[in-house]
Amino acid sequence: xxxxxxxxxxxxxxxxxxxxxxxLYAGLYQLLxxxxxxxxxxxxxxxxxxxxxxxxxxxxxxxxxxxQAAVAQVxxxxxxxxxxxxxxxxxxxxxxxxxxxxxxLIMDAWQYFVHRYMHQNKFLYRHIHSQHHRLxxxxxxxxxxxxxxxxxxxxxxxxxxxxxxxxxxxxxSVFFFCFATIKTIDDHxxxxxxxxxxxxxxxxxxxxxxxxxxxxxxxxNYSQPFFSIWDRMLGTYMPYDLVPRPxxxxxxRPSRD
Length: 257
Prior knowledge:
By secondary structure, the protein is mainly alpha-helical. It has helices spanning about 10-30, 45-50, 55-80, 95-120, 120-125, 150-165, 170-185, 195-200, 205-215, 230-235, and strands at about 240-245, 250-255.
């Protein structure tokens, strides 16, 4: 039993809940006070170094989410028509947790190799992936600010493959996609807040991804959004130290020359 049962379908929630969660969670970060003592970059750095304005970022994210919703609707339609058993039987909670873990591993693998290739291929980087790196200093609302083609290949297609291979039901996918959305936002929030559970349980976190957005770390720390497995296995892991910044705040400083 879930709170939306009897009101909207699991497919509807799987499509639109992650989008609603995105704007609620990212909006919460946007509305927080300055919290300069927890920032990985100063407000001045964010204003001076970022190459794209907030309204443009919002439009770019909305475009990606429009494509994401369309693909999700087609995916759910095709998978429901392919089933001859009627409404899917919801597995046990432990098995759903296992499916979500499998989907996390699949999404990580997909995003690592696509992301890395977009950095290594000069044409793709210049014309596609560089749009995301126009946010030199990441912030929460810009987590899904990508070129539309990158959004389709990296996030939307990666999510679809994770859903299909893990075998999860549309209902389970609601929780997986909402969790992945929250984790992606947190990785881009630019804040190292005390007690943040993502910083406690995941080595791939806000500071880890901040290194990737720095010039000297741009060829490292490709892994996203959950684990650092592929970076560590394939030699693209860049360790870092989190040190106090003169004048207040924190700095993720690469510890590899």
